[in-house]
Design brief:
19 helices; 8 strands; 385 residues; 48% helix; 4 domains; mainly alpha
């Protein structure tokens, strides 16, 4: 790809190719473009780190690409007299990769309020510029104007990139929803975060804690790709975002941006924690949902039994955290009105699932009989809540 692009630019700016090294060729292109046009060059690099992220498990290729990228990006300093602006986007300023070792004048705008909403769409912009699409979405889905806006907000808003920045919408998903007049999971079709899932599993992360986390900005800026921190990785890849800021502690509160991201992420993570022999874990979850909606609790519980049977026995016995993570994913991936630890005047309900026609009260016991859980539900009159 680099060779094809460089050949095109070399031809356009009349560069005589004297060197086969990409770094030298790029330097000649930048200088020639300046001399030919009389204007300094602007370089835009999108996803500068994609070759690295895509080859984490291929060490030889990874090192080769890292070296190539470092040599190419070194031109941003050595060719400074020919450059007006260099703007780069990517997962992060990776630490310990020496990609930017020759660059000491980079301005990091990751948390700069001035740029906080430059890569998304605000709610006000929807109302001003997408009024027709919003009205059509409401009409085709039998919703009010405010109802359609709430659905868009619930599914596609929630990203924030500075302590005081506005919440913004994912442009790709929002524009697809307005174009097709349908609320669907569009962003999840753009790629699978296997690196995220593998890192979380390898580090035995507590999912609930990871998805509701407080940290300082320094924890999110530098990302060691060779040994990535799960929280920083989730933030930099868009699966976590800023939800609040503790000024006294100088800490961000992170959380999952919206329903679209949550549903997609949990479905992708599920097979890493549950391996069912009869059917894929996600298919069993669909069975659980269908049976709850249709009013078949016995069938739903049989499917739940198959689901939990898919957690390796040794994993359950030696690492309760994995069992808890699987349960956490199940309760959130169901997509129904699901609440855990519902407090009442006489105790707390372990799990409540509500559909349009039914409400289910579920008691959970670890190393206790089902009868004890049922008796507790009856004794505490949870069914009257």
């Amino acid at each position: 790809m680099l060779d094809r692009l460089f050949r095109e630019w070399e031809e356009r700016y009349g560069v005589e190719v004297k060197d086969t090294e990409y770094s030298q060729r790029f330097a000649s292109i930048i200088a020639s473009a300046h001399e030919k046009t009389g204007r300094q060059v602007v370089v835009l690099v999108d996803e500068y780190d994609k070759p690295l992220v895509g080859n984490l498990n291929k060490q030889e290729i990874f090192e080769d690409y890292r070296a190539q990228l470092a040599s190419i990006y070194s031109n941003f300093k050595s060719s400074a007299e020919h450059l007006r602006l260099v703007f780069m986007t990517g997962v992060s300023r990776f630490s310990r990769l020496n990609i930017f070792s020759d660059l000491n004048n980079i301005e990091d705008i990751t948390f700069d309020k001035s740029y906080a909403d430059i890569c998304g769409i605000t709610e006000n912009e929807i109302k001003v510029y997408f009024q027709d699409g919003l009205l059509e979405l409401a009409d085709k889905n039998h919703m009010s104007y405010d109802g359609a806006l709430r659905e868009l907000k619930r599914n596609y808003e929630g990203y924030r990139f500075s302590a005081d920045g506005s919440d913004i919408y994912n442009p790709w998903s929002l524009l697809n929803a307005l174009k097709k007049s349908s609320i669907e999971n569009y962003w999840n079709d753009t790629g699978l975060p296997t690196i995220v899932a593998e890192s979380l599993k390898r580090m035995d992360a507590d999912l609930e804690e990871t998805f509701n986390y407080y940290c300082k900005s320094e924890d999110l800026k530098g990302l060691d790709l060779l040994n990535p921190d799960p929280t920083a990785l989730l933030y930099q890849t868009g699966y976590l975002t800023i939800k609040g800021y503790q000024r006294k502690l100088h800490k961000f509160r992170l959380g999952i941006p919206n329903n679209e991201v949550k549903t997609g992420l949990y479905k992708i993570l599920l097979p890493y924690y549950v391996s069912c022999s009869r059917k894929p874990a996600n298919r069993i979850v669909e069975e659980i949902i269908d049976n709850f909606i249709c009013g078949y609790p016995d069938k739903a519980m049989r499917s739940m039994h198959a689901f939990f049977a898919g957690i390796d026995y040794k994993m359950k016995m030696d690492n309760e955290n994995n069992f808890y993570n699987a349960f956490y994913l199940l309760t959130h991936i169901i997509g129904l009105d699901t609440e855990t630890e519902v407090h009442t005047s006489d105790g707390s309900i372990d799990l409540k699932i509500e559909t349009e026609d039914y409400i289910y009260i579920i008691g959970l016991k670890y190393d206790h009989s089902p009868e004890k859980a049922l008796q507790q539900i009856e004794d505490k009159h949870f069914t009257l809540v």
